[in-house]
Amino acid sequence: MKLHEHTHSPINLITAYGGGSIRVGAQRYEVPLVLAPTGMPAPWIASRAALDAGALEALWPLAPRIVLLGAADTDLADLPALRRICLSRGAALESMD
């Protein structure tokens, strides 16, 4: 029997993050984006300052169970309010720094 590493995955995998960027597979992104398990990552908001209840509307068609914010070096004072909105839609909101 021969074992081979499977290098192509139909699922979007975060392969690195930090320093204001995230890498999904081999592609590096330096802008806020919506990342679902499959499909292409899509641009989301212009900046962290634009993250509000209206910005979350773009997520609901994807029916997320978890919303993960990469929020290093940002003020998350509004996180409790955003978390309540997510919970009302059946999604957990977590931040990652």
Structure in words:
- There is one protein chain.
- The chain is of the alpha+beta class and 97 residues long.
- Helix content is 14%, strand content 27%.
- The protein contains two helices and seven strands.
- The protein has a three-stranded antiparallel beta sheet, with no helix packed on it. A two-stranded antiparallel ribbon has the order 4-5.
- The relative contact order is 0.15.
Radius of gyration over alpha carbons?
15 Å
Q: Got a strand count?
A: 7
Based on helices, strands and strand pairing, what is the structural class?
alpha+beta
Quick one: overall form?
A: globular
- Order of strands across the biggest sheet? 1-2-3
Counting DSSP H or I runs of 4 or more residues, the number of helices is: 2
Helix coverage percent? 10-25%
Gap between N and C termini, in Å?
43 Å
Secondary-structure element string: EEEEEHEHE
Please mark out the parts with pLDDT under 50 across 5 or more consecutive residues, or reply none.
none
Mean pLDDT, nearest integer?
A: 85
The percent range for strand residues is: 25-35%
